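My main concern about presentation is that the manuscript never shows what a single data entry looks like. Each protein is reduced to its one-letter sequence and a matching series of backbone shape codes. For the editor and my fellow referees, an illustration may be useful. For illustration, here is how one protein appears when written out as sequence plus structure tokens:
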Amino acid sequence: MAKSRKQNSPTDWFADSPSPIYLIDDERRIGFANVALAEWVGLPTEQILGAKLAYQSSTEGKSSALLGLSPPPDIATKRRGLVSVIARDGRIRHREVEFIPLVDSLTDHSPLLVIVATKDKTATELAEATRRISPSEARHHQLIQWRRSEAAVSEWDILAGTSAAIVQAQRQVAAAIASRAACLLTGKCGNDIATVARLIHHGRAKTANATPRTLLVADSRLVTPAEFTTLLSTALRQTTPTTLLVEHLEQLDSSLQEQLAIALADLPRCVQPIGTILQSAATEASPCAYLRSRLATIVIELPILADRGNDLPLIAQAVLEEQNAARELQLSGLSAGANDLLALYDWPGGFAEFRLVIEKACKSANGRLIEAGDLPAVLHHAREQATVPRKGYVPVSIDKNMQQVERWFVERAIALAGGNKAEAARLLEISRPRLYRLLESLGMVSSEAEQPEFREESDA
């Protein structure tokens, strides 16, 4: 009697492969992971199995080390790509992969077999690889790197970007969180500087071993003198970590400014003050110099979104990926046309308005990308306005404009006089010699020697 052969399951074929291999099931969960993948990720296999993947870049949560393993949502149009993991030492490791569909027709929930290369990409190889993938996929990997490199502010999409102005702001915010020093925020969008002020408060709480932190807020536009006095008294009595946030210092009454300046000198060490000043051409009001000096240990200048056109695609990708983490339908990014529209709008409502627009577009998108048509009409109007030719700056010359006025009067008088210069001079209430000099200066006759342009009446 012949011995029966033990039949291996398909996954057994990959268990000992030197290439990291994993299987994503129809619920976007990792249903199989071989030993090589566990070694590459740096996690036990049991912590990998069952992890649900989403196309997002957040560093929060237990499965953040695996966040880069999710394939791009537009997988139906490609078979190769990049994935990444966060190693135990905090480094991000990137490798090329091959996606193998396990069904003939790919859908949102089609299972995939993913075969990972055996070597990590070097910085040079990664730069070359990102040039071969779609712009939205490149931004996805850029976000993963940014969130890990700027740990203190990585979850704050308002600060995403690589422009010089926002990189400087990122460093200033990180310094404010780490030092807990008094700081002053300035900018042209009140909503945005208020948002960043609160993010500094939450960032300090996050880095203080989860110690609860109190937030005391006074909006100078709304607070009454009695309320402000009570707030300062409360701050002076604090014995636990506290942030004293005074918004719109440019509108704080002078007597209250003096009161605040005195209080700042006596605040307990556990209380860190933050002030905000809205930069506006409409007002020249400013806090007193002493008050500014007390708050300006760290000064953070926050650029407005309208001045960060190159950063907007990355910020939009970050908001989109947050939506991916909370929904079944996954989006890859924004189309080039949609990103162009974002850069043409002024965003008067700041980041809050920007976030709302992207969130609504995520809900209305029909494909894997947010298209220009998914964005609100106000952005399309901005594009129409941008295509209207605008006159450039034209200097106003008094002499040139006066000459045009004089020429009009002279031509009008000569026409009324039927070409008679003597009569034209009388109509202009000037002498004939002055009229001739005026004609010469206006280029209406070249010199006195030339024949006059108009018929002249005899003096007789």
The chain is about 40% helix and 15% strand. The radius of gyration is 35 Å. Residues 448-460 have pLDDT under 50 and may be disordered.
